[in-house]
Amino acid sequence: QVTLVESGGGLVQTGGSLRLSCADSGRTFSSYVMGWFRQAPGKEREFVAAASRTGISTYYADSVKGRFTISRDNAKNTVYLQMNSLKPEDTAVYYCAAGVSSIASVPSRYAYWGQGTQVTVSS
After folding, report:
1. How far apart, in whole angstroms, are the C-alpha atoms of residue 72 and residue 28?
2. DSSP calls for 37-59
3. Which of 53, 74, 92, 111 is the most buried (most CB within 10 A)?
4. Which residues of 5-33 are buried (b: 16+ CB within 10 A; e: fewer)?
5. Confidence at 88, pLDDT banded by 50, 70, 90
6. How far is CA 32 from CA 19, 50, 112, in A?
7. What is the CA radius of gyration of the chain?
8. How far apart are CA 117 and CA 70, in angstroms?
9. What are 98-112's pLDDT values in tens digits?
């Protein structure tokens, strides 16, 4: 059983930073590829970043490359998203997701989802 809980969202000014965390209460965390997605009001859910089971391989959307960093600590059953140089267009609900297939940017490849955490970047 996988239960994902995100935390770390909030309100930040343009140029600021936030670190999101996503913890899994199960015992199989290291067997899943982990991803972060976001959804702004009126828009479809979009891929942000993903990490392989070991965390060695990572993949980013072009819109966040160089500003966001995904990492994971399998000993703590937690995946992180460090977000720097935030922009108003980064405002969205951020979701973490766990998948059993290879690293992917498509939501349908992820079987388990957290409830989301709001990130708001003011201009």
Report:
1. 14
2. EEE-TTS--EEEEEE-SSSS-EE
3. 92
4. ebebbeebeeeeebebbbbbeeeebeebb
5. very high
6. 21, 11, 10
7. 13
8. 16
9. 999 888 999 999 999
